[in-house]
Amino acid sequence: MHHNDDNMTAEDLLKKGHGVMLREAKECTCSSVSVLVATVVFAAAYTVPGGYDQSGLPIFLGTPVFLFFTIMDVVALASSLPSVVLFLSVLTSPFGMKDLERSLPRKLFAGIWFDVLLIDHRNANIQSNCFADHQIGEGEVDFNFSI
After folding, report:
1. Which of 38, 50, 130, 132 is disulfide-compatible with 141, CB 3.0–4.6 A?
2. 147 pLDDT more than 60
3. Are 56 and 70 contacting, i.e. CB atoms less than 8 angstroms apart?
4. CA 51 to CA 43: how far, in whole Å?
């Protein structure tokens, strides 16, 4: 087994720094960001682009813009739940030595991946909303499709 200059193995170094890593892991703000973005995505489902007509139906119902908005919002909502659940499972895990090897890194990677997916689709959702507002003449919009 390989030892460093202080005659410590990799496992010895991990055990020595476990307390510091434990404190840093519990301060993870990814779950807060996930919950905040999920709240915005949930609210967006009720504020459809263009608004509603007198009968209570969305103005753009049946148009490609509304379909795109709906699909992006559903995908964003669908990716927000696993993201929040994964980050909460990281926060409530026991943080033992074995957890640091496989379980926690996998959960963090999956949670961050779902967050990226969520934010990506939320951006597309915002852009479809801007396009719909531009179509009904509520103002000039500078489109920046940088997804």
Report:
1. 130
2. no
3. no
4. 14
Q: Chain-centre distance of CA 140, in angstroms?
A: 29
Reading the block at residue 13, the tokens are: 């170094």
Q: Around Cβ 78, how many Cβ atoms within 10 Å?
A: 14
The alpha carbon torsion through 129, 37, 81, 130 (nearest 10 deg) reads 10
Measuring CA to CA, which residue among 39, 1, 26, 48 is closest to residue 108?
A: 26
Q: What share of the chain is helix, strand, coil (3-state, %, to 5)?
A: 65, 0, 30
The two most distant CA atoms of the chain are separated, in Å, by: 77
Condensed to tens digits (0 to 9), the pLDDT of residues 62-95 reads 888 888 888 888 888 888 888 888 888 877 777 6
Token pair listed for 30: 């990814």
52 φ/ψ angles, rounded to the nearest 5 degrees: -115, 155
3-class SS of residue 52? strand
